[in-house]
Write a structure and sequence with these properties.
Layout: E1 20-25, H1 30-46, E2 50-55, H2 62-72, E3 77-85, H3 91-108, E4 113-120, H4 123-130, H5 137-156, E5 170-171, E6 181-182
Parallel strand pairs: 1-2, 1-3, 3-4
Antiparallel strand pairs: 5-6
Helix pairs in contact: 1-4, 1-5, 2-3
């Protein structure tokens, strides 16, 4: 087992206005999930975020639940919480890879997600990582979601979608050899 290292942690972001987070939890290992939620809730409360919690059967159901909520509900960010412990079959690899891939795809599409799904070799590793007084991976996932919410709000004020014009109002249309035009 690897030893403990120190890791740099960013301070929690300061976010103007109300922040709503949805924790999507797979309670397959109830005690581990409860510790992850406790750590995540403490960090969210420290940042002043409002939290709702929903449970789904397992880690594979977390990405679809977040996808639905991102389309159908009013949340700023999401925290995925659960635990996958290696067993005797390759099912572990499928659950780890597919749940992670699903969350990554959602994130790449602009959904603010903190991934707190533990993928471990044994229960002892899970207990240390989930413990709010230990590695507090639930708290880390909440902090990650909050950082992404802060970034999305910062960048939303600077939308550069279709019709973006640089400061100064001049731009060049592709293929235009006559020079620039004024907006």
């Amino acid at each position: 087992m690897a030893g403990y290292e120190t890791h740099d942690q960013l301070p929690l972001p300061k976010i103007d206005g109300r922040v709503r987070l949805l924790f999507v939890v797979a309670p397959y290992y109830r005690d581990i999930a409860d510790n992850l939620v406790a750590g995540a809730r403490a960090v969210a409360e420290e940042a002043g975020a409002q939290v709702d919690v929903v449970e789904v059967p397992g880690a594979l159901e977390i990405p679809p639940a977040i996808a639905m909520a991102s389309r159908m509900a009013d949340y700023d960010g999401f925290v995925a919480l659960g635990c996958v412990i290696r067993g005797e079959t390759t099912h572990y690899d499928t659950v780890c890879n597919d749940s992670s891939r699903g969350l990554t795809l959602l994130g790449l599409n602009g959904v603010c997600i903190g991934n707190g799904i533990l993928t471990v070799e044994n229960r002892a590793q899970a207990e240390v990582r989930a413990d709010p007084k230990g590695q507090n991976k639930g708290g880390g996932a909440a902090a990650a979601a909050l950082h992404l919410v802060a970034l999305s709000r910062k960048w939303a004020r600077r939308t550069h979608g279709i019709g973006f014009r640089p400061e100064g109002g001049e731009f060049r249309i592709a293929g235009d050899s006559e020079g620039s035009q004024t907006a």
